[in-house]
UniProtKB/TrEMBL annotation:
Residues 1-28 form the signal peptide. The lineage of its organism: Bacteria, Pseudomonadati, Pseudomonadota, Alphaproteobacteria, Acetobacterales. This is DUF748 domain-containing protein. It comes from Acidisoma silvae. Keywords: Signal.
Length: 609
């Protein structure tokens, strides 16, 4: 019997519980209507709101609103066709903001002034929002601040699809994760386009300081009393952009891929307005304010519609830049085309170890001479640079100037060690009228130059030691120099004290050589042709002049004239050597009264091989 009664009682209890739950559900839905109605009735700033239908599920804590709209002064602000809020809690205050585990929406329209944005559907998880009228926490980006509509202060994740505005902008998909207090863990978008033809296939960023980026790069944030900081802080951890195309009134540009790591920055001293960013003062400040860990740009193309010129760059990279110090900068394979013809090209350019920090921190009113002097005294340093396969056309179809390689490396220490080389600089004789006038009589149509220099510089004393400095003209000959020079000027040639400083330069021991290939023979042939004589006549005249030239150049060497004559007969190598007991001041050679004494002090000898 007890069991039978129990069997009867259990269904009754279930029915009773269900009835109670149903009553609770009805009461909860009624309260939801009341709460939403009160909220819409008390919107700040004269805003009004309405909805078509509302449902609330007590057991899943899910609120569904249909046809929600908010307007202000007769102008629409928000319209949502369907809004679903899961597990809603909080009262919207700063201490206890509205929170939801998940928000789903369909058909969102947002109006901000003249802007009207549409979102097809979206989902947000782990959201915290301040109620309308609540003060906005510090660190919230201005563009995200909406005290009259409610300000989001935390978003675990958000996805939105089919975004557009009335101006022709569209985004297929947008997602973000980990937003709190102006900081965003990651964000990405797919298929951006606007009415002007600007497009982005996809973009993604991580570790984004939204408020910091806005404070640094938004001119509107440069107001009296605005938040600032003196040392660059992290603004962006990583950025990738693929397939960007941009258009303006003067042409268009595009690239395949951009990556950026470790962007840091501080607010500029002046707002980044169009009229300020063009000034030298802003450029110096910007170089101090912004830092980059790494950046790479792949396949950049820029077209100028005014000239029909197209520039293509396969690769640009920056590694480790901060406060005027650059780790490495490279550009790979550049071409410039006009009317479907390549007009200029560059195979590779690389610069490393650049440091101009001292120049950036120089007084703002420093003159150009002062800046150059500062650079020469260690204010500008470079570890190495390299340039390969450059070609620049001459105007009017006069040929092309080309360069195979140019490179230099510098090692800093008690003395500065340098090693420079230039190979394959090809210059058509028609490059300039003066060059053509010089080379054409020699039968040279193309001048091919190479150069190399190794040496050291003692910055403390201005002393230079040249291991070897050589300039070669292919097929013609070469000039080489080695030696020591003291007290080299460290001021600009245009400065008032340059001449006096140059006069104190000391000439130490040196070797100056000319190695002939065909240049001497070409000169003899040219002089013979121009004078209507034979090469032998020119050679005989040169022998006669050799004695006078030797006496003027090397007065202390009895056989100097013989050495020159031997070189004329068998032009291979002619060398001038100086072996002074001490460096001879250059000023000694600037006056006729001391010229011969200077020559004697140099202890010059001339020899032919």
């Amino acid at each position: 019997m007890p069991f039978k009664k129990a069997r009867i009682a259990i269904p009754a209890l279930i029915v009773l519980a269900a009835a109670a739950a149903g009553g609770s559900q009805l009461w909860a839905e009624h309260q939801a209507h009341v709460t939403v109605n009160e909220t819409l009735a008390n919107l700040p700033g004269g805003a009004t709101g309405r909805y078509d239908d509302l449902h609330y599920n007590l057991f899943t804590h899910t609120l569904r609103l249909y046809g929600l709209s908010i307007a202000r002064a007769g102008q629409p602000q928000i319209a949502i066709r369907k809004l679903v809020v899961h597990h809603l809690s909080g009262d919207g205050s700063v201490a206890n903001p509205f929170r939801s585990r998940m928000i789903n929406l369909v058909g969102l329209d947002l109006w901000r002034g003249t802007d009207h944005i549409k979102i097809g559907d979206g989902t947000a998880k782990d959201v915290a929002i301040l109620a309308p009228g609540m003060p906005v926490p510090a660190g919230t980006p201005r563009w995200l601040t909406a005290p009259e509509d409610g300000t989001p202060i935390m978003v675990g994740s958000l996805t939105a699809n089919t975004i557009s505005d009335e101006r022709g902008m569209s985004i297929v998909a947008l997602s973000l994760a980990g937003y709190q207090s102006g900081q965003l863990r990651d964000i990405s978008l797919n298929q951006y386009a606007d009415k002007d033809g600007n497009t982005v296939q996809n973009a993604a960023a991580t570790a984004v300081d939204l408020d910091g980026l806005d404070r640094v790069f938004n001119p509107a944030r440069y107001t009296p009393g605005a938040e600032t900081w003196t040392a660059p802080r992290p603004l962006l951890g990583h950025l990738e952009i693929a397939g960007l195309a941009a258009k303006d009134a003067h042409g268009d540009s595009r690239f395949d891929h951009l990556t950026l790591d470790g962007l840091t920055g501080r607010p500029f001293l002046a707002a980044p307005e169009p009229e300020t960013v063009k000034t030298a003062a802003f450029a110096r400040d910007a170089l101090e304010a912004i830092g980059i860990g790494n950046a790479t740009l792949v396949n950049l193309t820029a077209q100028d519609s005014r000239t029909a010129a197209i520039a293509k760059i396969e690769h640009i990279s920056v590694t480790g830049y901060a406060d005027g110090a650059l780790g490495r900068f490279t550009i790979g394979h550049v071409t410039v085309q006009q009317h479907d013809k390549t007009t200029a090209s560059l195979g590779h350019f690389e610069l490393s170890g650049l440091n101009v920090t001292t120049l950036l921190h120089a007084p703002a009113d420093a003159s150009m001479d002062q800046m150059v002097a500062l650079a020469q005294n260690g204010g500008a340093k470079i570890a190495s640079f390299q340039l390969t396969d450059a070609a620049v056309p001459l105007p009017d179809g006069g040929g092309t100037v080309t360069l195979k390689t140019l490179q230099d490396s510098v090692t800093y220490g008690p003395s500065i060690q340098t090693d420079m080389s230039l190979n394959g600089l090809s210059i058509p004789a028609s490059a300039t009228p003066d060059l053509q006038q010089l080379l054409q009589p020699l039968g040279v149509d193309l001048l091919v130059l190479s150069a190399a220099e190794r040496g050291s510089y003692d910055a403390a004393h201005g002393d230079t030691h040249i291991d070897e400095s050589k300039i070669s003209a292919e097929g013609l000959g070469s000039v080489s120099l080695s030696g020591t020079f003291t007290n080299l000027p460290r001021t600009m040639p245009t400065s008032d004290d340059y001449a006096a400083a140059l006069g104190k330069t000391g000439i130490g021991a040196f070797h100056l050589s000319f190695s002939n290939e065909t240049l001497v023979q070409k000169i003899i042939a040219m002089l013979a042709k121009e004078g209507g004589k034979t090469p032998a006549d020119i050679t005989d005249s040169a022998h006669a002049a050799a004695a006078f030239a030797a006496a003027a150049l090397v007065p202390g060497q009895a056989d100097a004239g013989t050495q020159i004559s031997n070189f004329i007969d068998n032009p291979k190598v002619l060398t001038l050597t100086a072996a002074p007991a001490a460096p001879v001041p250059l000023s000694t050679f600037m006056s006729p009264d001391t010229l011969h004494a200077g020559q004697a002090a140099l202890n010059l000898t001339l020899s032919a091989e």
